[in-house]
Each structure stands twice: as C-alpha cells, then as structure tokens.
Amino acid sequence: MKTNAISCKDVTLKDGFWKTRQDINKNVTVDAVYNRFYETGRIGSFACNWRTGDAEDQKPHYFWDSDVAKWIEGVSYILMHEKLPEAEKNIEWLIDGIEKNMTSDGYYNVYFNIFGLSKRFTDRNCHELYCAGHHFEAACAYYNATGKDRYLRLMERFADLIYKVFVEEKSAYFVTPGHPEIELALITLYRTTGNKKYLDLCSFFVEQRGNNEKDIPLFNDPKYAYDVGPMRKAAYAEGHSVRMNYLMSGVCDLAYETGDEELFEACRRVLKNATHKRMYITGGQGSTYIGERYTSDYHLPNKTAYAETCASISLGMLAHRMSLYETNSEYDDIVERTLYNNTLSGVSLEGDSFFYENPLEIRNEDYETEYYDFFWQPHYIPRTRRKVFSCSCCPPNIVRLMASVGGYIYSLGEDTLFIHQYIASECKKDGVSAEISTSFPQNGKITVKAAGVAKVAVRVPYYCKELTANLPYEIKDGYAYFDADKTVELDLNLYARFVYSNTRVYDNVGRAAVMYGPLVYCAETADNATVENFFADASADISVGGDFHGAPTVEISGETQISGEELYSEEPPVRTPATLKMIPYFGFANRGEGEMLTYIPLK
Ligand code: FUB
Ligand code: ZN
Predict the structure, then answer these.
(1) Burial status of residue 554 (CB atoms within 10 A of its CB: 0-12, 13-18, 19 or more)
(2) Cα of 370 to ligand 2 centre, how many Å?
(3) Which of 181, 244, 446, 447 has the fewest beta carbons under 10 Å from its own?
(4) Which residues line ligand 1 (CB under 6 A)?
(5) Domain 412-491 listed as CATH 2.60.420
(6) Looking at residue 208, what is its pLDDT?
(7) pLDDT tens-digit profile of 506-547?
(8) Read out DSSP for 494-541?
(9) Separation of alpha carbons 310 and 5, rounded Å
C-alpha cells in the first residue's frame, strides 16, 4: 500500500537523541562545512572567475557544484523551521553567481563554465548531470523553505536545456549520466513545479540506461554505473555503491509516481541483494575503495571496509522511498540501521569533522608497518575524522541528512498514520497531527498520540521479540495497528545481544557483533587496556548501562588470552577472566587514535 510522505517541513523534533544531533548540525556542522568549502575555493568558484595563474588549489573541480548544492539543500531544511540569516545571505550570493554565469540557453557548472562550454555534455564521467541534479534538489528545498523562486526558475531553465539536448536533439555524446542522481532530483522538480516534462526526462534516463548503443561503460565495466541491461531487469547491487543507491532511489520515485510495478520489482530485487548479501551490519556499503564499489556476495572485510558515509545515507534514502511505495517494516529497519550506525559515525560527536570511510576494525599495527610492497599497498582507512576531503561529498551529505531526518519518521495512508522511526517529534499535515515521546535508543519506551486519523500503525522492528502495549493491536506487514483515539504506550523491550554473521563472511568466522536495539557496538582502547586479546563468552549476560551521548554502553564478559614471549610455543596462552566495555559504533574514534573492534572473537 502506498502512503504519502510527510516531509521534514511538517515535522519538528522534540528534545532527544536526534534533536541533540540536529542542534549540533545547525550550530556547528553547517558552518564547519561552509568554512572548509570557502577555504578550498568551492564557494568562490560559483563566481566562475578562476583564471590560469590563480591559486591552483582553488581551481574548480567538475563536481564542486554538487558539494555546495548539498550544503544549500541542508541549510534549506533548517530554514523550513527557523532563520539562519548569515547562511541565507551566503545562499543568495551563490545564487547570484549562478544567475550571472548561467549561459543564455540555461547551462551552469562551475568547471565547464570556466574551462570550456564547448566540452559540455561530451564526457559521461564528468558528473554534469549529477551536479545538475544536486542543484535541482537544493533549488526545490530552498523554494519550499523560503518561497523565493529565483534559484528554482534558474534550475527549471537548466532542466529544460537538458531535456532539449538529451531527449529532443540527442546531441550529447552520451545518453545517460555516468553518475546517477539527476533521476531522483527530476522527480523532486516535477513534484515541486508540477511540470510533467521533468517526470518524462527522469523516465527517459531510467529507460535508456543499459539499453542504448551510445553509452560507453565507465572504466570499461558495464557493472560500474549499472549499464548491464535495462533497469527493469536489474537484479543485483553492482558497481559504485552511491551511484547505485541514488539511481535506484530515482527508479523508486518514478515507480511511485507512475505506479509502475515492474520498475518497483527491480528495486525490490536490488535492495534484497544489497542488504541480504552485501551490507555491513552497520548499514555500510561498498567493500572496497577500488571503485568505491560493491564486490561480491558476503565479501565484507572489516579493516578495509570502504563503507562510504554517502553510501549509507543513500541506502537510507532508497529504503525510505521503498517504504512509501509499500508498507513493509523491513525497509524502515534498513533506514534505522543506516541512521544509527554507518551514517552517524560519518560525523564527529562535536560535529566538525568527518569520516568518508567507516571501517569496522582498526588495528594499530596496520598503520605502523614500515614495509609496503611496491606494487601492492594495502588501503587502510584514516583513523581519525577529517575536516574536509579533496572529494568532499560526505560532509554536506551529513548536513542535509541531519537537517531532514524529520522526513523519515511519518507517512500518511488513507485513514492511518504510519510511524516508521522512533524519533521524539511532532508532526502536522492536512488536519492530521501526531506526537512521539521517547528516550529511544536509551530504552524502548515510546508514547504516540495522534489526531485526525482512525488508526496509527507503528513499526515493530526486527529486534523486538516482545511488544508491550497498553492497547490491543493487529500486526500487518511488520506494523502494529492501533485505534488512534487513545494515546498508545509501547515498550519494544530492547535488549543487548550477540549477532553472528553468515559463515561465508570470512572475517567474522568465530566472532560476533554486539547490538542493542538498532545500535551496533564496538570496543576501543580508550575504554579497555587492550581490545586485541579478548574472547567473549556469548552465553554470559551482557550488562547494559551508562550513557554515551544518548545511548547506553554495554559490557561483555569473557577472558583475555596472553601468550609468553616466544613466537611459537607448545604452551597455550594464559587465560584470565575479563570484561570488555563497548560503546555505540557511531561514537568510535572520538577520543584520539586507538584500536577498535566491532566483531569480537568468541571463546
Ligand atoms: O563522485 C561523486 C561522489 O564522490 C560520489 O557520489 C562519491 O562516492 C564520491 O566518489
Ligand atoms: Zn561521500
């Protein structure tokens, strides 16, 4: 059953786990990202006045538009609720740059406007349509927040040009974008303007992908940007993870608007492969930095996990869209897994530094090895977060995700309000109002009040073995349906548990992860003398307590096993009973460089 989205504009977060993070995003991250983008030339590039001889490190890159547009989009979601005069002034300056430099036929890209408009739309891997898409998303968000339509009108001109070049003239050197994203953005543009041309353009890009003679597969690999065949037949999560998630989000939006069940079935197949065979327990995706891509089923190495922050954010975007197309708690479980783990770990607790890659294990020795094979250098992930990256897609993605998290909580069916995520908040839309009060994920107690609907349907997460409720309910598609005339009081009865991987995940054989509700845990040397030689007793109780930035810490029991000095010995290691303290994975690497372990060896 399809339900209607309730956007973050109609939702206000109340004090709690996510409100704290939204405040950090607003008070710290927004400026931190802007300032780094200013220093690195990204902001200034919108004036399109870089010339040979100017500072090389300020020279525009062909996807800088996307970085800044994502920042504008994120700020716009905040502007839906409150004023940020300085940021709004900066956005107006950026729009001035777009307006002044947009060509008479409606083209804008900070790289091509400077380095050669004659080269526009000639290289499929130059991200022009990806950048355009991020501008469309930002322009719609800014318009929806402020009512100011200058940016939106400029982007309509750009979209009209793209339609003319790609659909009517067919004059571009390629047919579909090397980096998808524009597909989902065109649906947003269609929804915002009501212009069906943008829906048609999205449909054109989706139907043509893997289905035309002109597109040359990127890096000679048809899987890389999903050129394997018609999207309608898509069955596997292949290639570059972020590209795939954005693409399938666009496909899902298109299916939603057109009711195209065959297209949606492709989303089901791809999501199933992605999340049942190719996803880290943290919701991370893309097992290797080579191509930032999926590898093969069950190949999920811990230390070299790429698990890009953008990949988990975009996986959440896809799963949320799918949950609007059909009610199925599994989709929202995926959203929740990404949000509380691989996405949150992408930003420091203070909000000013970022992980691009999110490993599941850090061992100091890997970073201290002096010998590197000349031809094969292992890729180990930075142990601390960075302020900015040369390819800085993740930080502004954090800004917009944090600012729009309210949009993942509710949706509206015919007579039913759906609660997808347990986030303390209030919503008001079309005569319907609701309020969620909770300290989740500290515990599973949740109160829901709703008015203006007959029923309220709350997701029963996969880890809830026993749902306690003050009122009778019926379960359907993973949701508990209650009459909405009374306040619903729930307890998901959260508990800490060991979670075992499929034994085909080679790294995790003989190990287990620890979870509490949606939270994955990790052990760090900041809390433990060593994390290396601990072997957990999975039959012992896990103690839950304390508070780590709004979530509990846990302690597991087991033993340490320490050998003597010999490299080899017939003496078994000495075993000593011990405990291991673990914190939520999202908080790792906030206390300096140290070792970290997510999958714990078992006794
Ligand atoms: O290529 C643009 C963005 O940078 C992608 O979405 C990320 O994966 C990173 O490659
Ligand atoms: Zn990224």
Answers:
(1) buried
(2) 29
(3) 447
(4) 63, 179, 242, 292, 308, 310, 391, 393
(5) yes
(6) 98
(7) 999 999 999 999 999 999 999 999 898 999 999 999 999 999
(8) --EEEE---TTSGGGTTEEEEEETTEEEEEETTTSS-SSSEEE-TTSP
(9) 22
Which protein residues have their CB within 5 A of the ion that is ligand 2? 308, 310, 393-394
Helix and strand element counts for the chain (H, E) = 15, 22
Q: How far is the CA of 294 from the centre of ligand 1 (A)?
A: 14
Cα of 357 vs centre of ligand 2, distance in Å, is 8
Q: What share of the chain in percent tops pLDDT 90?
A: 96
Nearest CA to ligand 1 atom 8: 242
Cα–Cα distances in Å, from 113 out to 106, 267, 431? 11, 36, 47
Task: Measure Cα distances from 91 to 39, 87, 100, 157 in Å.
Answer: 16, 6, 14, 19
| Rounded Cα–Cα distance for residues 509 and 516 (Å) | 21
pLDDT grade, residue 574 (50/70/90)?
A: very high
Q: Give domain limits for the chain.
A: 412-491, 497-601
Q: Is 211 exposed, middle or buried (0-12, 13-18, 19+ CB in 10 A)?
A: middle
353-397 pLDDT tens trace = 999 999 999 998 888 766 555 555 667 788 999 999 999 999 999
What number of other Cβ atoms are within 10 A of residue 94's Cβ? 20
Instruction: State the pTM of this model.
Output: 0.97
Distance, C-alpha 235 to centroid of its chain? 21
Which residue bears the tokens 């050129």? 227
Please list the residues that pair with 212 across neighbouring strands.
Answer: none
